[in-house]
Specification:
The complex is a heterodimer of chains A (about 325) and B (about 350).
Chain A lengths: L18 H26 L14 H9 L6 E3 L5 H7 L3 H8 L23 E2 L8 H15 L5 E6 L6 H12 L4 E7 L2 E2 L2 E2 H4 L15 E6 L3 H16 L5 E6 L17 H8 L3 H9 L7 H24 L16
Parallel strand pairs in A: 1-2, 1-3, 3-4, 4-8, 7-8
Antiparallel strand pairs in A: 5-6
Chain B lengths: L9 E2 L1 H15 L3 E5 L14 H5 L4 E3 L4 H13 L3 E5 L10 H8 L2 H4 L8 E7 L12 H5 L6 E3 L4 H13 L3 E7 L18 E2 L13 E4 L4 E5 L1 H15 L5 E5 L2 E3 L3 H11 L2 E8 L4 H13 L8 E5 L8 H7 L3 H13 L10
Parallel strand pairs in B: 2-3, 2-4, 4-5, 5-7, 6-7, 10-11, 10-13, 13-14
Antiparallel strand pairs in B: 1-8, 6-12, 9-11
Classes of the chains: A alpha/beta (about 325), B alpha/beta (about 350).
Chain lengths: ~325, ~350
């Protein structure tokens, strides 16, 4: 197995970024972290049904990518999608309630953890089949291209998707027709227990973009500024008719694949190296290099986030279950 | 409506389908067409001439990439377009089954109704002398999937009205038409009283989920669709000469299924024979049999019977293909057996 070490790029001066944007990045990253840890706790206590795939550790990639989009742009989510939904702006109460299978959930309790999303804020409810979202993302981009509305689609997928036929078909179609898509790979190196180097010969997955005559770039995914800048550029190109880009973000999940997985198949050396590069404290430290931002500000934000997550849990627990009869609704549109 | 029959409006199924497609593309700018070899009209000339009329923006030639372009069509539909996707052979849909079963059929449901997917997929279906991998009766496989609608027109008049309704529907609709009925490019057209017919030029749609009695009769109800409808009509015509009065019902749409029209016919005749080209095990005819048995049991004078393809793939040799795919003679024999032995279980196989 090849161990890819975190290689943080040199930090740039943050003065070129609006203070609001920087604080929003931190706020959303923190929201995802606290949300995922709370969800994990609720599962371990047996209070939440179903299964979960937690995304903590990958916050910088997810948030950097989503904040680089315009409000009208659309993302597709993966099975590890809680963070993506929160980063795009799905209300935290609606995501939490969906995980509890409540009528007030973003999918009325029909989706669950694997299918969270809200298209009204540009988050197509998550597609839980690896690779299957890529052609659908290309299709939404096809509609935007035909409408000439300058909207774009960002397709989230993991390293596991790059050996699926659907993914390759979508990459080809999007490149061929210059569709306004950003293919965003959250490469956390593992498909469940299988390390990416066991299943592909490429050193970087973005190498594959070249086979489709598509731009491909690999970046350090635990720094939201790096991800933001990269996706911003890719999104701009897509918007201007230059076609898709594949952006590979190297990151690491702090939990296992799912709730009962402790990730023991990962070598200690790798885990240590990546855990030391935790995106949340790293970004906090980075933010404090900017003279506009104070520790008190960030502390206050942390308090607000904790309260918001607690409120979301209360909201979900006090929400009604769906009516049994609603199991027969929402199949066909009028 | 059909009294003003004129020779120049006597169409084959594919001519009627093309007319419907053309009208809908003219009517609604959000309708667009995708498929392989679209400039050639696909394999059965469904898309013939569309590129010249509507241009490459709306008539999109695709790579051989079925899962990719079905997924793309789903995404485009979610964002407000109304894709019509042509398959050269329905069999190729298996390459896109995740997109059909897990995505198109479920995205609305599992999102709590957030999206709608107005998508039409045209599938040439059935056995036609091409061996096992270009011969699937797709309707048999697709019948089981909640979340899609399944349409199977057998006559040109129905084909036009049903395709227009399918394109206007806000859900994924799969339209199967039988390879032996297109009658295009000099291909063999299985003939019956309905294989070509008068199709009005004016606008009409046929609602999805409404069966049609294609021939009225007193003695027995034969429910059949696609190519089997034509074999059933031919069998009925020949049995009429022997004093047997067969009613023939075409479900026209399999999902939703019009069990009421079928039930009304059985209440009248007391006997039900179902003829389907798909493999017998789990075919749509089993559902019809179960529905009728539970709703109309008291009216039945004989056990319900099914004529279907036995549970094997379709073999190539013409003599073998016709040994497994139901034809006029098997239908005749089943009808005769059901009428000769009222109340007795059928002897032997089909």
């Amino acid at each position: 197995m090849r161990i890819t070490r975190p290689q943080q790029p040199e930090r740039k001066d943050l003065s070129g970024f609006a203070e609001n944007l920087l604080l929003e990045m931190y706020r959303r990253m923190l929201l995802i972290r606290r949300f995922e840890l709370k969800v994990n706790e609720l599962y371990q206590e047996g209070r939440m049904p179903g299964t979960i795939h937690l995304s903590h550790g990958q916050e910088a990639t997810t948030v950097g990518a989503c904040l680089a989009l315009d409000r009208d742009d659309v993302i597709t989510l993966t099975h590890r999608g809680h963070g993506q939904a929160l980063a795009k702006g799905v209300p935290v109460e609606a995501v939490m309630a969906e995980l509890f299978g409540k009528a007030t959930g973003c999918c009325r309790g029909k989706g669950g953890s694997l299918h969270v999303g809200d298209l009204s804020v540009g988050a197509l409810p998550a597609i839980g089949i690896v690779g299957a979202s890529s052609p659908i993302a290309a299709g939404m981009a096809f509609a935007f291209q035909r409408a000439g509305n300058r909207r774009i689609v960002l397709n989230f997928f993991g390293d596991g998707a790059v050996n699926e036929g659907d993914w390759h078909e979508a990459m080809n179609l999007a490149a061929l027709w210059k569709l306004p898509v950003v293919f965003l790979c959250e490469n956390n190196f593992y498909g469940v227990s299988t390390h990416i180097s066991e299943v592909v010969l490429n050193e970087y997955l973005a190498e594959r973009a070249a086979a489709y005559r598509m731009r491909g770039v690999t970046v350090y995914g635990n720094d939201p500024i790096t991800v933001y800048d990269t996706v911003r550029e890719a999104a701009g190109g897509a918007r201007n008719g230059e076609g898709p880009t594949m952006v590979e973000c190297l990151t690491y999940r702090r939990g296992g694949h799912k709730r009962d997985d402790r990730g023991s198949y990962r070598p200690e050396e790798e885990v240590d190296a990546w855990f030391q590069r935790d995106p949340i404290p790293d970004f906090r430290e980075y933010l404090l290099t900017d003279e506009r931002i104070t520790p008190e500000q960030l502390d206050r934000l942390e308090g607000e986030i904790d309260a918001a997550v607690d409120r979301a849990v209360d909201f979900a627990l006090s929400s009604p279950d769906p009516q049994a009869s609603s199991a027969l609704e929402d199949l066909y549109a009028e | 409506m059909r009294s003003d029959r004129r020779e120049d409006r006597t169409l084959t199924i594919v001519e009627a389908l093309r007319e419907a497609l053309r009208e809908e593309m003219q009517r609604d700018a959000s309708v667009f067409l995708m498929g392989e070899d679209i400039r050639l009209g696909g394999s059965f000339s469904f898309t013939l001439g569309m590129l010249d009329t509507f241009g490459a923006e709306r008539v999109v030639n695709t790579p051989i990439s079925e899962s990719g372009f079905i997924g793309l069509a789903i995404g485009a539909a979610i964002q407000g377009l109304r894709p019509v996707v042509d398959f050269q052979y329905g069999d190729f849909l298996f390459c896109a089954m995740d997109q059909i079963v897990q995505q198109a059929a479920k995205l609305r449901y599992m999102s709590g109704g957030q999206v709608r997917i107005p998508l039409v997929i045209h599938l040439p279906t059935g056995a036609s002398g091409r061996g096992a991998q270009h011969a699937n009766s797709m309707e048999g496989f697709l019948f089981h999937i909640p979340g899609i609608k399944l349409v199977a027109p057998a006559s040109p008049y129905d084909a036009k009205g049903l395709l227009k309704a399918a394109i206007r529907d806000n859900n994924p609709v799969i339209l199967c038409a039988h390879k032996h009925l297109y009658g295009s490019k000099g291909r063999q057209l299985v003939e019956s009283s309905l294989s070509t017919e008068y199709v009005p030029e004016e606008e009409y749609t046929i609602p999805l989920g409404v069966a049609d009695v294609k021939r009225e009769g007193r003695d027995i109800t034969v429910v059949a669709n696609l190519l089997m409808l034509h074999h059933a009509l031919n069998a009925a015509a020949s049995l009429a000469g022997e004093g047997i009065d067969v009613e023939v019902v075409d479900p026209r749409t399999l999902v939703p299924l019009d069990v009421e029209t079928i039930g009304a016919s059985v209440r009248k005749t007391g006997r039900l024979l179902i003829v389907e080209e798909n493999n017998e095990r789990g075919g749509w005819g089993a559902q019809v049999a179960a529905e009728v048995a539970s709703r109309e049991f008291g009216y039945l004078k004989a056990p319900i019977r099914r004529v279907a393809t036995p549970d094997v793939p379709i073999p190539f040799a013409p003599v073998l293909e016709s040994a497994v795919v139901p034809g006029e003679e098997r239908i005749r024999r089943a009808v005769l057996e059901m009428l000769e032995a009222p109340g007795e279980p059928p002897q032997g196989g089909n």
